[in-house]
## 1
Amino acid sequence: KDVLDLFNVREALELEAAREVVVYLDDDVIAELVEMNAQAEAYFRAGDYEGFLRQNRQFHEAIAAATQNRLLRQMLGAIHDRVRQVGTLTVKMHKPRLKELLEENRQILAAIRKKDGPALECAVRSHLHRGRQHVMRMITDANSDRIPIDLAREA
């Protein structure tokens, strides 16, 4: 339940950031985000997945910072440590998630470049839902792995 609550709060905050950032997207902000995403992709191609995940977090933190909403940024910062732990575990258990993150960030960046608020909101929502699906599958798999052991103890 705590993990689901975490993802619900994260979704509300990240979608708000997506809605707010569009009005602040000038050439400098877009260039910074493009560069951050390019660096993440370079880490990915080099097989430096820790570097990729670190740069991925910085990319999303930069989007929040660009909203110029200090409270929103603080609230996102407060939950990102928890999200980071869950996300890192998910990626370790399901390596293809890295490539999905790469593609999801490309979609987010494409919407940012166009300054297309609805497309950005859609891309962020898709990114969050896919992440939630992986985490929930991981939890379900972990729970189902324990069921036979618990049943064996009761027998």
## 2
Amino acid sequence: YHWGIKGMKWGVRRYQNKDGTLTPLGKQRLQEKIGEVENIDRLSSKHQEKKLRELNSELESTKKKGYKKWADDFGYEDFDDDDKKYEFEKELDYIKYDIKSTQLWLNASKELSKKLSEIETQSKGYEEAMRLVDEYKDQILTETQAKEWELDDDE
């Protein structure tokens, strides 16, 4: 029979060596945690880049339509020209705001990816590495949300 490793506790996994460096299993778990954080939509570079392309495309197509065609497509055909222009400009402003906001989140996701890639060398063990992932995620979310609110105030 094999009764395990002498002195090892049931259910305890070793994620770091005695000197604090991560074991292969510790590195794997850290990468999984980082992957989970990077896949949060707001913090995903791929998601934000795709959204930015879509918004830029929407802005261009809306501008090309012109306010009369746009207004007719959205049920403003009974409005007079000044009201159609007003609604059209408001729509363009919404799209521009979304572009600024998305760019803000894209920059944040890139900053977070950079910080996350440096964690293994900065941390002094598995627990600290995992704590840093959460700390950086929370910090970036908080800072970027505050910047987004500033955009709202500028509008």
